[in-house]
């Protein structure tokens, strides 16, 4: 039975989840006197912070991708060594008989350099088995039993490296599940804090109420983010390499770009957002750090509002 994939409860990057959690915990510390009577206590913030520390301590997916990449490279190198050991036998048979003789075709290895890894394992076993039977017939061409036997350790090494890829992929799958699990736990606490903050200030302080908004989604699918004058907000939307996004802006003017985390400066191009901006843009126009965060800065004189959604 296929393993059921765990799903994230949030639709933005892990870096954005971490950044939002940091921001909201800072707001909670600032507003503890107002939040505590509403039932959100310092103990709740402490528990959420512990989940944030755990989440931030998880190894990123890029680590596991690197491990798999290295394992594949090692397997490919071992495959090359195995093919050389096989060729030492096959080429001597071809030297005597050519490719159309049964002495060659019995190996069933035509085009073996293009075989799948599993097919190559079977082919190597055939070459070894047949080679032990015929090596003495090709002594004049330099074939020896030791040459045939060399296939065994090369095949063992190849199988070991091949199995290691599966282990690394499994490690990545388990780490992904754990990151989704811990991310969802943190996001659940973030939602609780967001609701507490919004309800606390909905009739008294619009600026603070906006601080606790994770995101709004319009009927047409846009993610909406409001930024007051001088405010920096994270834009909780998933970034996709080469993605095209419909961006609308009012007020401000504002700037948008990607960052490594919520406290870092822009890492790439900055998209200037004057009042009335409304067009589709490629992600390359406002950064390419798809594993980072999208940051919005209102450097203008009036409250700004961003609407954004991915269109392709």
Q: Fraction of residues in helices?
A: 40-55%
- Unreliable runs: none
Shape: elongated
Number of DSSP helical runs: 9
Gyration radius from CA atoms, angstroms: 30 Å
* Helix-strand string: HHHHHHHHHEEEEEEE
The largest sheet is: 7 strands, antiparallel
Distance between the termini: 33 Å
Notes on the structure:
- There is one protein chain.
- This protein has about 300 residues and is α+β, with helices and mostly antiparallel strands.
- The protein folds into 2 domains: about 5-205; about 215-310, Jelly Rolls (Sandwich).
- Helices cover about 50% and strands about 15% of the residues.
- It is built from 9 helices and 7 strands.
- The protein has helices at about 15-30, 30-35, 40-55, 60-95, 100-105, 115-135, 145-150, 150-200, 205-210; strands at about 215, 225, 230-235, 245-260, 270-275, 280, 295-310.
- Strands 1, 2, 3, 4, 5, 6 and 7 form a 7-stranded antiparallel sheet that branches.
- A hairpin with a 5-residue loop joins β1 and β2 (about 225).
- α4 (about 60-95) packs parallel to α6 (about 115-135) and α4 (about 60-95) runs antiparallel to α8 (about 150-200).
- The radius of gyration is 30 Å and the shape is elongated.
- The protein starts with 13 loop residues before the first helix and ends with a strand.
- The mean pLDDT is about 90.
